[in-house]
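Saturday, quiet lab. Running sequence design on the structure tokens for the scaffold JK sent over.
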């Protein structure tokens, strides 16, 4: 296969489809989404079989536990995919929305209209659900998508792509609106991220190495986050019961996700009371603790933490722990070591909670809730195409609005500029 020629063909098809998608009405887009959701439910067994084939290949290739966790599908996750599409269908259509319409002294009205970005290239590893989430969000927001999943999920991605095409064609939308790159040749990625005549934005989802490569080599704007070093701060006015539940869920529900907690901070005045119980819970669940000297004094099983530990996204049963003087040091430590993804405070003090929300510089900041909520589905976006820790265009989980842009519109009645 001539990779360059193949990718150019995909790009041309996507650009043509994007123009048709931009003018598709809401009812047609919603009909396609619901047909795809129904097809996913109908083909549950076929999808599970395709995923089993991918899992067998991945295990034989020696993929690590975090990658296998991301790759695995279950009946519940398949149902969640379909539900996500149904949620997207129920959301308001952002395209064509006009805002900030104001009269100017000249008599013209100036406002903004929300429009699609155009063609979105999504490059991702492992997670087959990204195929569906990306397709659904791009479809509803009037964009076309070129999806390049990892070779480890090729069987499942092909099966899902067929169902997406079934829904598009049944609704009268162009099949080229969602295209899955069929080749596993890595050269396809190099072509995709430089086709600026056909692709308007790139969204990489996967390990830090993949995202760094895309960020460094792309000639197209990139929406991305590099890693998820997420923090939980247990304040001196925290409820211990809440802290235990939130920490357990944040760290142990799933180890391999970007919104899993990797660092725990505990206020010094309650460390002797709370930290042994928090650490005991984690140890009982198989989590290794790496802490500061004060942590080691209170938690004998803890290993000493290095400065590098506080910067690390483990994606494993390991957590870094530090005893801090209070809120000021917790905020300072978090802003220094975090990846600006997701942070949480556990406190009953409203004023401290407000300060944490205002001063912590991350894309999601939570009060008395698990970091695992930092997700487009949980935020009511239907799904997400990725999470951005950038500060321009989109930040946090990227849903429909993040896949659109604004253009100025002017309404006049024959006015000319003096």
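Result came back. Writing it out in full:
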């Amino acid at each position: 296969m001539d990779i360059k020629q193949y990718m150019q063909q995909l790009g041309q098809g996507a650009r043509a489809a994007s123009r048709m998608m931009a003018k598709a009405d809401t009812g047609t887009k919603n009909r396609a989404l619901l047909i795809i959701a129904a097809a996913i439910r109908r083909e549950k067994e076929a999808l599970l079989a395709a995923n089993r084939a991918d899992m067998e290949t991945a295990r034989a290739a020696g993929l690590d536990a975090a990658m296998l966790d991301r790759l695995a599908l279950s009946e519940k996750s398949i149902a969640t995919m379909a539900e996500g599409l149904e949620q997207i269908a129920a959301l308001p259509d952002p395209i064509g929305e006009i805002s900030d319409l104001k009269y100017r002294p000249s008599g013209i009205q100036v406002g903004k209209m929300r429009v699609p970005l155009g063609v979105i290239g999504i490059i991702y590893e492992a997670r087959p659900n990204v195929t569906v989430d990306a397709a659904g969000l791009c479809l509803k927001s009037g964009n076309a998508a070129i999806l390049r999943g990892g070779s480890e999920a090729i069987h499942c991605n092909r099966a899902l792509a067929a169902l997406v095409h079934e829904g598009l064609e049944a609704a009268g939308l162009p099949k080229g609106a969602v295209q899955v790159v069929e080749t596993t040749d890595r050269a396809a990625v190099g072509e995709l991220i430089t086709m600026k005549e056909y692709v308007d934005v790139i969204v990489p989802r996967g390990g830090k190495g993949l995202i760094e490569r895309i960020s460094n080599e792309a000639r197209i704007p990139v929406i991305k986050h590099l890693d998820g070093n997420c923090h939980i701060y247990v304040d001196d006015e925290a409820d211990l019961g809440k802290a235990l539940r939130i920490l357990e869920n944040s760290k142990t529900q799933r180890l391999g996700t970007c919104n899993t907690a990797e660092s725990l901070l505990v206020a010094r005045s309650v460390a002797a009371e709370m930290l042994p119980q928090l650490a005991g819970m984690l140890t009982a669940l198989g989590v290794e603790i790496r802490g500061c000297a004060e942590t080691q004094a209170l938690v004998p099983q803890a290993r000493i933490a290095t400065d590098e530990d506080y910067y690390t996204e483990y994606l494993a049963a390991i957590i870094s722990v530090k005893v801090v003087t209070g809120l000021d040091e917790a905020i300072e430590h978090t802003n220094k070591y975090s990846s600006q993804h997701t942070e949480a405070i556990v406190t009953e003090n409203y004023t401290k909670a407000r300060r944490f929300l205002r001063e912590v510089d991350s894309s999601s900041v939570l009060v008395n809730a698990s970091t695992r909520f930092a997700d487009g589905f949980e935020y009511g976006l239907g799904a997400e195409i990725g999470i951005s820790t950038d500060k321009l265009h989109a930040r946090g989980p990227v849903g429909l609005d993040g896949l659109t842009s604004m253009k100025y519109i002017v309404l006049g009645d024959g006015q000319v500029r003096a």
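Notes for JK: The chain has 15 helices and 16 strands. The chain has a mean pLDDT of 95. Ask whether to fix the surface positions before the next round.
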